[in-house]
Amino acid sequence: MGGPQKWAAWSPLILPCCGAVQKVAWPSTPCISAWMVAFGKQVCFARLGCFTDDVPWAGTTERPVAKLPWSPEKINTRFLLYTKKNPNNFQEITAINPETIGYSNFDASKLTRFITHGFIDQGEENWLSDMCRVPMFEVEDVNCICIDWSSGSRCQYTQASNNIRVVGAEVAYFIDVLKERYGYSPSKVHFIGHSLGAHAAGETGRRRPGIARITGLDPAQPYFQNTPIEVRLDKTDAEFVDIIHTDSAPTIPYLGFGINQAIGHLDFYPNGGKQMPGCTRDFVACNHLRSYKYYSDSIISPDGFLGYTCASYDIFEAGNCFPCPQNGCPQMGHNADKFKDRVTSGIQKLYLNTGDAKDFARWRYKVSVAISGKSRENGYVNIALYGTGGITRQYEIFKGTLKPGDTYTNLIDVEVNVGTVTKVKFLWNNNILNPTLPKLGASQVTVEPGEDGHVYVYYCENLKFISVIPALVYIRNNIVYTRIAISSMYKKENFELPFPKILIYIFKEKL
């Protein structure tokens, strides 16, 4: 899946089983001792072994249409190597001709990251190579190998969902050759797969135990949801398996393409895992594609994308899983494996929110504002955070009836890691010109970052209520302005602001 979708290719999902076995003539090749035998429900390849279309691969509720995978030659799995020495142009290498690896810039002393695509995509599409070049090579020196199996992905979905078994076997064979020729350990391999490609990674891991890590980017749902672990990606397929779910609504009727069940050591459900901010159903693949965009952003946001362990997204949004526990929160994406030694044996579902466009990383804070004043007023309270890491935009903490003596709390997901919080900006606005000149302030502001739970408290008892006195209202360039006088116990100043923007003042941390 991914890229422009050819929806006609999905039609077999709702067709009855129509048989699968085909007799295929096998061409002789000078460089491969290969053979294929098709009989009954099995097909065999010399390098890769045998594949069946029997249960659980077909004939089940989850996989009603039986298909045997195509031959390795027809699928034509290609390995495209990028390194810091050749970041802009790949070197095509193959385990069938291992000399191509020796002649290339492959470095056996370094980690290898395989990246592959899903249904209808192709391995030379920009997102694969871009992930290698920018940002991966900006932060690390690795062998980055893009796997192109587009010849086996641009077909009916039921066929492609079986072709990935051969793709996974090809990668396992490639790892075997690396081990035999270069003494290269599977513990230095990380396989990143999107959609169907995630299940190809699972096949690789099942065949080649000891792979360090597999990352599933919204693993495909149809023909894999609720299937046995030998059919789909599972946490048993590598030492560490992390999953990003971005399109996990049911395929029927919502056209969700990503698996919903938790299948890894860590399963991240950003924004609840079903509807991503910035996506609409006008582009039905948008949610599905967000998984690799989040992963790419996570490479250059080493402290972003914190996932909070929670029973559900609704509970997460209610703030009941905040802040991170004492042993910390894992990070979704590239740096998830930093948490692998703290993973428990059970299923761990994690939730977080993202932005609606690049840059997607967000940092969660809990902000409480204690209101001071003499009377209730309708309006809203906004807060902006200042810190050693940057400044946020304004975020709404509460909107409605503000009552002096009450404290209003909200969780906000901000666009920058503020770092050590040094001050906050407080804005109160009642959106109307009130002749009674209402006076409201904040006696205390509390800020708690989700990452470490450190609480920053800002006491404001030394500030008198701020008087906002409209001295003049006028129009300039079709914008209504008001000139106001702002007074406190320290100073009196005049400001010119677009009406009805009333007041912004800064609470500094009490020393």
TrEMBL record:
The keyword Disulfide bond applies. Ca(2+) binds at R232, D234, D237. Residues 363-478 form the PLAT domain. It is a peripheral membrane protein. Coiled coil: none annotated. It is an enzyme of class 3 (hydrolase). Residues 1-20 form the signal peptide. Belongs to the AB hydrolase superfamily. Lipase family. Its main location: other. The active site is at S195 (nucleophile), D218 (charge relay system), H288 (charge relay system). This is Triacylglycerol lipase. Keywords: Calcium, Cell projection, Cytoplasmic vesicle, Disulfide bond, Glycoprotein, Hydrolase, Lipid degradation, Lipid metabolism, Membrane, Metal-binding, Secreted, Signal. It catalyses: 1-(9Z-octadecenoyl)-glycerol + H2O = glycerol + (9Z)-octadecenoate + H(+); 1,2,3-tributanoylglycerol + H2O = dibutanoylglycerol + butanoate + H(+); a 1,2-diacyl-3-O-(beta-D-galactosyl)-sn-glycerol + 2 H2O = 3-beta-D-galactosyl-sn-glycerol + 2 a fatty acid + 2 H(+); 1,2-didodecanoyl-3-beta-D-galactosyl-sn-glycerol + H2O = dodecanoyl-3-beta-D-galactosyl-sn-glycerol + dodecanoate + H(+). It is found in: Cell projection, Neuron projection; Secreted; Zymogen granule membrane. Pfam families: Lipase, PLAT. GO terms for cellular component: extracellular space; neuron projection; zymogen granule membrane. GO terms for biological process: lipid catabolic process.
